[in-house]
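Quick one: co-fold with zinc ion.
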Amino acid sequence: MSLNRRQMMLATGAALLGPSALSALAAQKGGPTKKVLFFTKSGGFPHPVVTRKDGRPALAERVLTEVGKEHGFEVVASKDGRMFDPDKIGQWDGFVFETTGDLTQPPKMDKADTEPPISADGLKAFFGAIESGKGFLGIHCASDTFGVHRNMGAEDPYIKMIGGQFAGHGAQQVATIEVADSGFPGASGFGTGSFQINDEWYTQKYWADDLHVILVQKTEGMKGDQYQRPDFPETWARMQGKGRVFYTSMGHREDVWENPKYQGLLLGALGWTTGKLEVDVTPNVSKVTPDYKTTPAEAAKKKSA
Ligand SMILES: [Zn+2]
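Sure, here it is.
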């Protein structure tokens, strides 16, 4: 796809959203601008949508910056770990991560990224900022960050905060996603029932117990051993202290990032996590996806029993 086509799609994105999605999101244009750090550092595998070429911002960086700007957000895309330092952390109303690996270590694979990693003090400041009320929006591989990559797993405060740790993915495929909470800003852009979309789908482990599920991964008919399990949360929200946390596993493919409905979901999440929009995120995971912790091995055992 040519750049011009991409730019055109970005420019028209808002107009393609459904009326209900628009009204909630349009309300965000008023009020003070929220300043958000979009951290795209890849400590491990660098996803193409966040990898810069020839010094130009990556696709995801361009999309979130532009769509944010139209809706009252100043999005700063960066791979510079110093942005979390105690003397800089206070400028951010929220944080968006599309990251991999241990972000306190130099990147293993992204040779184009020469920016410093997050310092120990910076990471501490980040957790403190979330706990005291700053927003966090995790995208796709944000759940493949820290945790097992620094030998902490389920005990990692980052994994506890985001609500799960990447467990695996199969081949990219069109999957059915059910809208569990169409009241979440931007979610109704996908409709109120279910929809189908092509992406790389993550399964997770070390799940939190207090997830407010927004979108559900319908596993029936999915190809790949890791998906032979009951339905599980695909997009969720939860509270971490006073901090508002949102995660969606979508966001690997370029055409997902270019999809106005996906952009609408991210805009809604930006609004809620930074306090522009109020939403009820009472945990519903035990009702919506009661068997979400059942692994494929456990599911197979139950089936044969
Ligand atoms: Zn991916």
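If it helps, The chain has one domain: 3-304.
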